[in-house]
Amino acid sequence: MVAKKAYPLRINEEILNAMQQWSDDELRSLNAQIEYVLRDALRKAGRSKPRPIEPIIDPVDE
Asked: What domain of life (predicted)?
C-alpha cells in the first residue's frame, strides 16, 4: 500500500459543494472522491501508469 500524505487544499466553495454531492451519490468520502477524480485525470492525461485499482480506505473508517 502506498503511504498517504496530508495536504491542505484551498478550493472554490462551489466546486467543493459539487464534489461533496458527487461523493455522496457514489457513497465515498469527500477525500476519497477527490483522490479518485485526480487519479482518473492523471491517467487520462498520460501522467500516471495504469495500475490495479486499490480500495481507498478513509482513516475515519478504520
From this structure: Bacteria
What is the number of structural domains in the chain?
Answer: 1
Nearest to 38 by CA among 1, 11, 62: 11
Which range of residues forms the domain containing residue 33? Answer: 11-47
Answer whether residue 35 is part of any domain. Answer: yes
pTM: 0.71
CA distances from 44 to 18, 33, 40, 47 (A): 21, 16, 6, 8
